[in-house]
Amino acid sequence: MSSGRFEPGAKGLEGRQFATTLDDALRYADWDTSRVAILRVTVSKDAPKSLDFSRDIDVSVFRGGVYTVQPGTQSDIFHNALRAVNHVF
After folding, report:
1. Which of 18, 39, 47, 89 places its Cα 20 to 30 Å from the Cα of 30?
2. How do the pLDDT tens digits run along the chain, 89 residues long?
């Protein structure tokens, strides 16, 4: 986030994943303890339809499904639609 954008680092995952509930995000934090913060993002109403949504990724963690924002066009759509970022945990 040092760039002000949700983008993968040099050794990071290709896309950025966003849980649909705080409970799912907390479950992920318990599963991967290297993650130290949970941020709540608010995007414009139309943005999610342009992102990848799955109910088949880490189903024991992301019970409500997970959005993945891929680098490039999806990342640009996401960042243009971003309305708020709040630190919640």
Report:
1. 47
2. 567 788 776 666 578 899 999 999 999 999 888 867 899 999 999 999 999 999 999 999 999 999 999 988 999 999 999 999 999 98
Judge whether 11 lies within some domain: no
Number of helices followed by number of strands (H, E) in the chain: 2, 5
Output the pTM of the full model: 0.85
| The one-letter amino acid at 38 | I
Are 50 and 7 within 8 A, CB to CB? no
Q: Does some domain include residue 79?
A: yes
- Parent domain of 21: 16-87
- The conformation of residue 13, written as its DSSP 8-state character, comes to -
Identify whether 5 is part of a domain. no
